[in-house]
Specification:
elongated; OB fold (Dihydrolipoamide Acetyltransferase, E2P); alpha+beta
Length: about 350
Amino acid sequence: MADADSHLEIGTHHGTQPDTESKSGKPRQWSRMAAMLFVPLLVMLVGGYFWMTSGRFVETDNAYVQQDKLSVSPEIGGRIIAVSVSENQQVKQGDLLFRIDPEPYQLAIRQAEASIASAQVSLQTQTTDYQATSVNIAAAREDIAYAQSKLVRQKALWERGFTTRADYDAAQHAVAQAQEKLRIAQADAAQAKSKLATAPSLPGQNPEVAAAKVSREQAALNLSKTQVRAPIDGRVTQADRLILGQLMISGLPALTLVADGSSWIEANFKETDLAHMAIGQPATVKLDAYPGVVLEGHVASIGAGTGSEFSVLPAQNATGNWVKVTQRVPVRIKIDSKSPRALIAGLSATVKVDIRTPKKH
């Protein structure tokens, strides 16, 4: 019985082993077939993706955020007596930045007002002088009339022999003197009238008074410029130059304002990347400072020259040891989407331009 059982057990093991092997062989064959089909398909898909996208994009990491920057300079000179802003402060157009000592310009206004008064007194004097010349002319004419009447009497007496030659000549001389006085009086009147004359460019205004009024207006304008205000909305930078008591010079930059909402990307592409690049093509921008932030934009303009062409010392290649270097051309990328983070001038960026997509109109 023991032998029979052992044979039966052995037979049982031998009988069931082929079924187990047949059942486990089918999944292995299926996995092999799936691998043989999936791996080539995956290779084809990846290869097709790279084939379709190769040559479609040009990319550069030589790109930086740029913003409009405005240097604020005082239009007049003087010492700073008040500073109203600090570094990185946000300001609105018209906000007071700093003040220059107004006292010298207030004195200039008072001096201009004194000049106006002096010109008005001079005008009044000239008017009086002109009026006096008319009196002199009338007196000269009366003298002529009296001298002529006396000459007529002397002539009649001379013809009758009742006067001397000396008296007759004296009467003639008196007439000549009276006529000369009239000419002098008329010349003085003409000169006085010319001083009261007005030019066609300033009808009805005396030039001296007008010049004095212009001086006062200029002094008032200079006084208003002692308060330096923000010309645009923006953020204050380089405000460390504003120190109380600092002597400011007209035209010397005092601080810089970075304009709000004026950000763009300056991407320096290789010259070999420009063959199919055109204005309006879409672009994506990634900022090194903000991982995960992707901004949409488009090509706004392509530079008129390479970076080396506009450098302070342009490269001179007329030498025997010249080595050709791939040049970089600045391309301006306009940002179309709103950034979730504040854009700071000078941030590094990576720009990818789709050169196969039709340009936007």
